[in-house]
């Protein structure tokens, strides 16, 4: 099941990409939120730490999975991109709902009304997830039509 | 820094012993890659740079300690494990020494220590004690602390990479999961140091605010390098498996009477055109 592997690898890379963009743009370029927020709960800190470490390791794992799929004849492209969109969207939604709202690790921005920022953040996440699901459907269809009507052992 | 001399001497002796052992192997006609030797000297250099350089005269006290901690406890152990000192010792020692070393390696305490979660708990637990237990204030600048940090970091890296022969090698999933958990614990500890320094010390807030991000992002760099080393292991193992599986595929093509032989799983030829990835509508069966 190459296409399942492609979705998994894409998702790992998507998580890593979303985390990298979050860290680079919002933390380091815009300085909207800081290295440490004094109102943070212990659980929030731990979640933040796992997410941070996991995103880097997911990036490495995703890139190596991609290399391995290339070696096996290239990942089916819709499946790979479905994974990237699902991973990035899932990360954004988790960060936006669990980290920002439930555990209150940090807010997107301080000193302003944060509601429009929250809505924009989570809407972007839902858009990515939708795109990922549509691509996944296409990837499944492609996979099925490839398995139909060909002799076993020959790549149609 | 009165202990700088002995530390420098010990590191130099260790690297020289390694080089002599590798030379002995090569004289015998065995191969020992030059890059492993380079790794050994790199590890020694980084460790000495961390533990023996006068960081305190260049940086505020806690940031100076953190720079030394990163060099001795994180950056030096990785090349020190990649140099495979245990494998080299097993090959270069005379037979009685080899037997003694094997007995140690195959003993139960060694197996427990090199079990990844145990090694990680020792390494990270020591760090939490160092920064969260009320220790005497001079602890953070003792050279022997850096020796301890190096030893703990080496044990952790040794357990996660598992490149030297042990009786039982932990699976890749367990080693990767251990790395993830340890990296997360390291990041959390670094973040809390931003808010509150070690108890009983009076480091200035500005000092803490340079040291905490240094620990956080410096730790990331070393952990990513570790992850790449692990992923390389996986990639090579997959490649070997692919090569093994594709050999029978070439031998057992379609057999007599056009009946296809047993199909090896996966290993499809690389497509010639991008369109090979897409379904061919003209071939769609009813």
TrEMBL record, chain A:
Query: Which Pfam families would you find in this protein's record?
Result: DUF2243
Q: Which InterPro entries match?
A: DUF2243_membrane
Q: Which UniProt keywords apply?
A: Membrane, Transmembrane, Transmembrane helix
Query: What parts of the sequence cross the membrane?
Result: 45-67, 79-99, 119-136
| Name recorded for this polypeptide | Membrane protein
């Amino acid at each position: 099941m190459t296409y399942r592997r492609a979705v998994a690898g894409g998702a790992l890379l998507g998580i890593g990409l979303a985390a990298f963009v979050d860290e680079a743009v919002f933390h380091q370029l815009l300085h909207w939120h800081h290295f440490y927020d004094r109102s943070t709960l212990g659980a929030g800190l731990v979640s933040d730490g796992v997410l941070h470490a996991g995103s880097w390791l997911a990036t490495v794992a995703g890139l190596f999975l991609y290399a391995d799929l290339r070696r096996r004849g290239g990942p089916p492209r819709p499946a790979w991109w479905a994974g990237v969109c699902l991973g990035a969207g899932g990360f954004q939604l988790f960060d936006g709902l669990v980290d920002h709202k439930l555990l209150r690790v940090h807010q997107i921005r301080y000193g302003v009304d944060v509601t429009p920022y929250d809505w924009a953040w989570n809407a972007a996440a839902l858009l990515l997830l939708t795109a990922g699901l549509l691509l996944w459907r296409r990837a499944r269809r492609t996979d099925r039509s490839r398995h139909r009507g060909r002799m076993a052992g020959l790549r149609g | 820094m009165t202990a700088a001399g002995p530390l420098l001497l010990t590191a130099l002796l260790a690297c020289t012993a390694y080089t002599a052992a590798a030379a002995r192997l090569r004289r015998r006609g065995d191969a020992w890659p030059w890059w492993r030797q380079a790794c050994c000297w790199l590890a020694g250099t980084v460790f000495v740079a961390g533990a023996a350089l006068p960081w305190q005269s260049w940086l505020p006290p806690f940031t100076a300690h953190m720079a030394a901690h990163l060099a001795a406890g994180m950056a030096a152990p990785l090349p020190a494990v990649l140099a495979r000192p245990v494998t080299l010792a097993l090959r270069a020692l005379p037979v009685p020494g080899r037997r003694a070393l094997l007995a140690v390696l195959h003993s139960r305490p060694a197996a427990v220590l090199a079990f990844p979660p145990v090694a990680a708990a020792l390494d990270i637990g020591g760090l939490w004690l160092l920064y969260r237990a009320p220790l005497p204030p001079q602890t953070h600048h003792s050279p022997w602390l850096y020796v301890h940090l190096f030893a703990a970091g080496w044990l952790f890296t040794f357990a996660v990479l598992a490149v030297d022969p042990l009786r039982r090698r932990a699976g890749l999933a367990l080693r990767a999961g251990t790395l993830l958990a340890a990296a997360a614990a390291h990041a959390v500890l670094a973040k809390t140091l931003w808010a509150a320094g070690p108890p009983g010390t009076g480091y200035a807030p500005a000092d803490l605010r340079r040291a905490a991000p240094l620990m956080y992002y410096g730790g990331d760099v070393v952990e990513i390098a570790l992850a790449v080393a692990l992923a390389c292991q996986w990639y090579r193992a997959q490649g070997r498996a692919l090569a093994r599986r594709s050999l029978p595929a070439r031998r057992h093509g379609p057999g007599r009477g056009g009946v296809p032989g047993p199909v090896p799983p996966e290993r499809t030829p690389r497509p010639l055109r991008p369109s090979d990835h897409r379904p061919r509508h003209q071939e769609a069966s009813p």
